[in-house]
Amino acid sequence: MNDRPQSLRALSRADDYDPDSMPVARARELIGRFLTPVSAAECVHIRAALERVLSEDLVSPLDVPAHDNSAMDGYAVRFADLEADGEATLRVAGSAFAGAPFKGQEVAAGQCVRIMTGAVIPAGADTIVMQEHVQVRGDLVVIGPGHRRGQNLRRAGEDLKTGQVVLKRGQLMRPAEIGLVASLGIPEVMVFRRLRVAFFSTGDELRSIGSRLEEGQIYDSNRYTIHGMLARTGCEVIDMGVVRDDPQLLEKAFREAAAAADVVITSGGVSVGEADFVKDLLGRLGEVVFWKIAMKPGRPLAYGRIGDAHFFGLPGNPVSVMVTFYQFVRDALFALMGRDPVPALPTFKVPCTTNLKKAPGRTEFQRGILTQDGQGNWSVRVTGEQGSGILRSMSEANCFIILPEAQGNLPAGTLVDVQVMEGVV
Ligand code: AMP
Ligand code: MG
User: Fold this and answer.
1) Which of 222, 291, 312, 391 has most ligand 1 atoms within 8 Å of CB, for mutation?
2) Ligand nearest to the CA of 300
3) What does CATH list as the number for 8-40+194-337?
4) 316 Cβ closer than 6 Å to some ligand 1 atom
5) 245 CB under 6 A from ligand 1?
6) What's domain 69-154's superfamily in CATH?
């Protein structure tokens, strides 16, 4: 929307602005105001364009297909030679294959041409009769009634026309788009530069995999879930490892990350206790738009800027990290990468077969398992324990059950909103 981010001061004058308890939809809207896509672009070979985003409209330099051609194996005929009620007998004047057109001048009256799928329609012919609908007698074919002028023909330009915008700026290049570009004979496309995202975990208790745990220590799993989620978005990932809860080390890490990347993501250190320190630090290095969201899990989620970089301070709890990533970070990254429109995770309603515990006041993202019964009907059930430290709930789940802020407990059988979390970008 705007080139320069709106200032925090302007935001804070709004009546409903509460950086310590931001409703989910409002938080999304606020983040959205700060997202200006990268502008630099590069030219890449179409093979390398997979998962990249087009930075300009792509216009077709030619008609696809280039010629009228046959959609069937059969005979190219003049429709006027066929009989409305009886049989017509035509002489086979030659053949036309894909890549090897009919050699004669044209199909004359009383003649036809043996033609294969994809072959150019010979001059004079206007209709294709499927081979299953003719009787062959030497070099004659006998064709019954019931045909339509122009049947079984693929017209020049029916797929794409010269000058037509085939793909728009902001389009993600998937295998279909790459094939489409290849069908136009175009070897290279302009794509936005990759978004650079730096991330680190914070916490004195964290140890890296491969080292031994002492009492009270845990392995740093967020590093791996965040890396995995980032890698799937197609951005360039800068993994800065673990930073201890030490003011000087954290300041150094924040500065380095912001200098190297478009987006800085941290996990841990934004909940009660550690937050004040991080708040002070970010107050000096940039500005923070909000600290807490009215959601569960994931309440302590900070969003702001450090220098020119966007900052997402994710919670420490492993489930909260994933939920906040899917609910806020993913869409923001896609917008910054230039994707237009930003694809939403598919959300739909299904009955929930289990009771749901829910206190009003916060939007909840419970972990659910969507399944289909023998009749093809979908339903969802909750994964069980919903603690924000139970990463197994994310592994078992294939969707979020989204329960709105005002919602209380729900009995089994209620229709709920589910959001599919994997496999769709
Ligand atoms: P924090 O937000 O730093 O207070 O962390 C909240 C909880 O998440 C604590 O139990 C932390 O030990 C845990 N936690 C923080 N960072 C990580 C991490 N990188 N991997 C796994 N657990 C973490
Ligand atoms: Mg911590």
Assistant:
1) 222
2) 1
3) 3.40.980.10
4) yes
5) no
6) Molybdopterin biosynthesis moea protein, domain 3. (2.170.190.11)
| CATH architecture observed for domain 42-61+167-192 | Alpha-Beta Complex (3.90)
Round to whole Å and give the CA distance between 324 and 101: 59
* Closest residue to atom 15 of ligand 1, CA basis: 316
**The pTM of the whole model exceeds 0.90:** no
Q: Tokens for 239?
A: 């993994």
Burial class (CB in 10 A: 0-12, 13-18, 19+), 281: middle
CATH code of the domain made up of 347-420: 2.40.340.10
Strand, helix or coil at 332?
helix
CB of 315 shorter than 6 A to ligand 1: yes
Confirm or reject: Cβ of 122 under 6 Å from ligand 1: no
CATH 3.40.980.10 maps onto the chain at: 8-40+194-337
Give the tokens for residue 423.
């496999």
CA of 212 from ligand 2 middle (Å) equals 19
Hey, how many other C-beta atoms are within 10 angstroms of the C-beta on 413? 11
Give residue 405 CA to ligand 1 midpoint distance, Å: 25
| pLDDT tens-digit profile, the chain (425 residues) | 334 445 666 666 666 677 778 999 999 999 999 999 999 999 999 999 999 999 999 999 999 999 999 999 999 999 999 999 999 999 999 999 999 999 999 999 999 999 999 999 999 999 999 999 999 999 999 999 999 999 999 999 998 999 999 999 999 999 999 999 999 999 999 999 999 999 999 999 999 999 999 999 999 999 999 999 999 999 999 999 999 988 899 999 999 999 999 999 999 987 766 666 777 788 889 998 888 999 999 889 999 999 999 999 999 999 999 999 999 999 999 999 999 999 989 999 999 999 999 999 999 999 999 999 999 999 999 998 899 999 999 999 999 999 999 999 999 999 999 999 875 33
Residues of the chain with CATH 2.40.340.10: 347-420
